[in-house]
Amino acid sequence: MIRTFDTHKIRKTTELSSALWNFHTLGEEGEGRDCLVPVPGCWETYPDTVSYRGKAVYSREFEAKGNIRLEFKGVSHTASVLVDGEQAASHYNAYTPFDAVIKGIRPGTHRLEVIADNSFGPDSALHVPNDYQSYGGISRGVVLEELEEAYICWIHVTPFLRKDGWYGKAEICVRNLSGDGFEGSLAVEIGGYPFAVLPAVLAGEETRCFTTEEVPCPWAECWSPEAPVLYSVSAVLSTKQRAIDDLIDRTGFREIRTEGKDILLNGRRLRIKGFCRHEDHPQFGCALPFTAMQYDLMLAKDMGANSIRTVHYPNDELFLDLCDEQGILVWEENHARGLSEENMRNPHFEQQCEDCIREMITAHYNHPSIYIWGILNECASDTEYGRDCYASQYALIAALDPFRPRSSSSCRFKTDICLGFPEVVSYNIYPKWYHDTSVADYLEDLYQWVQSGSEGAGKPFLITEIGAGAIYGYRTPACVKWSEEYQVRALKEQLQAVLTREGCSGLYIWQFCDVRVCDSWFGSRPRTMNNKGIVDEYRRPKLAYETVKESYRSFGNYFQEK
Prior knowledge:
Blueprint: E1 12-15, E2 19-25, E3 34-39, E4 55-72, E5 75-76, E6 78-83, E7 86-92, E8 98-117, E9 137-138, E10 142-147, E11 150-162, E12 165-176, E13 182-190, E14 193-202, E15 207-211, E16 215-216, E17 231-238, E18 243-251, E19 256-259, E20 262-265, E21 268-269, E22 272-276, H1 290-302, E23 307-310, H2 317-326, E24 329-333, H3 341-344, H4 349-364, E25 370-374, H5 384-400, E26 406-407, E27 409-410, E28 425-428, H6 439-453, E29 461-465, H7 484-499, E30 504-509, E31 515-516, E32 529-530, H8 544-553
Parallel strand pairs: 22-23, 22-30, 23-24, 24-25, 25-26, 27-28, 28-29, 29-30
Antiparallel strand pairs: 1-10, 2-3, 2-4, 4-8, 4-10, 5-9, 6-7, 6-8, 11-12, 12-15, 12-16, 13-14, 13-17, 17-18, 19-20, 20-21, 31-32
Helix pairs in contact: 1-2, 4-5, 7-8
């Protein structure tokens, strides 16, 4: 399953995932392991490779002819794609999609091989030993598409709320595979309503974007957490004779902007009640199936949450589809967590970050649930070199999508020098866990510094991590750290202080569920897990579940108007 809806009616597509593939590890001679495995999947969930770090090849056969496109939604964390033994594509980063386009493939049966590598090394600036697991495998869906001489790469729709109602603007990217020029047209519909018809003229082998004017949409209703109204978006590419390609996506009409210290959704002051959530499960690794994704959202909604922060990487688009459909606001961020200035000076760092940002925004632009783009969680925002990195990545986001706010989750207490760049100031704080300071006092001290001693003064302010650890089942009247009783005590004080703090737009609890971490983190992570989940790795509720539920459900999605 790739999306929760069909993305084509004209273009012929075949899902190559949701099937068994051949799997073989590429370790030292004589150490290879062979088996049949499901795709999507992570090899850490296979019996013989639970701790394997290195290279492995996935392979299968497929039928095709002519021009084809192979789309990979996620391979961890580097991929080399071979078709009939010839390299067709390569890619770095587990969490963003990529493709391989092959022109004029002979009719018949072909062999597809994907060499995945989850090892760490100097060429990998973002996948490093970290406070979460870096899995190996084809972790998201794979699709085979048959193309004609030209095809639609993507379509982006931007809604605008004017005084007289909703307007929309569309940008459509088309690629001509032929060496000859292409002359045709693009017809765009939104919600079944005709939107625009554009001439589509491309030179040989040209990729070009076509943009509509702003078009009034009097039929449009607002997307919101209470009423997540979605509309299909369809673009059809035609020659003078016939339609040759199409692309279907979805959008929602909603406006996100900041005004002073407020984040506004459709003009209303938004209150965030969220969870940080890793893609992680003991049975599935990071390749969660559809039902497991939905179960996570059901638990989050039952506790009264209205938002998910996708720590620390772009998420599977299936999960974003579910958030769109159920009115769950999403903070989505690029892939970089806890990197020092030394880490950021890796010669591949900036390019790998920027590639992730481009691929994330290009693929996920239309999701109305995404209300903010995040970058560089807890990185070196207190150094001049780090400041240059933050500046360039923020500028790239603004160029790709100037209509959503931007932010970074910082842990640099009173030393961050990058708060002038984003629209929203965000901090990760852990009073009552890493130190025993009063939550209200610690928050007040930080907030006053932001307002008087930093470039973040006057901006919306979010707490993007707060919480305390607990080992599921560890109960003691002593209420010591790592007990479920202590987690309840800490969260009560944390949630009360943050949710009632004037000038704070809300918070994200760290974290939704317990998750596996890299082995090198064992010293500070009992069970080699990050144990701060409100549910454990099997989604069993801890005592804090009811505490969070009581707190979150006592507050609405919006602040009262001033």
